[in-house]
Design brief:
216 residues, alpha+beta, four-stranded mixed sheet, 4 strands, 7% strand, globular
Amino acid sequence: MIRLHHCHQTRSMRSLWLLHEIGIDFELLVYPFDKTLREEPYRSLNPTGRVPTLEIDGAIVTESGAIAEVLCERFPQAGLGRDPGDAERIAWLNWVHFAETISQHTAALTQQHVALYEDHMRSPIVMQLEAKRLAKTLRTVEEGLKGDYLLSSFSAADIGVGQAVYMAGHFVELDAFKVLSAWFARLQARPAYQKSLPDGPGLYAKDFYAPWDIPS
């Protein structure tokens, strides 16, 4: 049995996308992005009250990078992982986990623009700093792309980083990164990517959130 606990437009999107790419049967439970995640029965699965949570054969996995490794090892026939000893194994692992480096900045910006409801709670300085830091991570992807995909062929590395870029696009204009934008367009054309998009209200009410100006 495979069951994914998911919130639209969060890190769990990369796990959902990966499951669709693998093409296996699984159960999907979708939650609102609210206190439901901190209450029972979900709290017993993931005490931190975050997503994703994957239940697989009686085990529970709660980190998206670990979920990618588990699923790629469990279903090697999908060709989305890189086995130990493969020449691309180290690069694959690095990109899979680099998705979190990108997402730490999108999480900070999501908090500033979305989660904090009162304007006096928000910081224009934090918004500007995090947007610049986020853009720096996108530059790393831009410079790391040497072909159509991050490695010699499409893999879970593209899924993890691609989902992080999807979230980053709400805070940084992707058009400034020509190579990245072309790669991301290839990912967006994949049916499994499209299946992982929200089919209802998601976390972001707007397509783009610009940093606030710093008061003079």
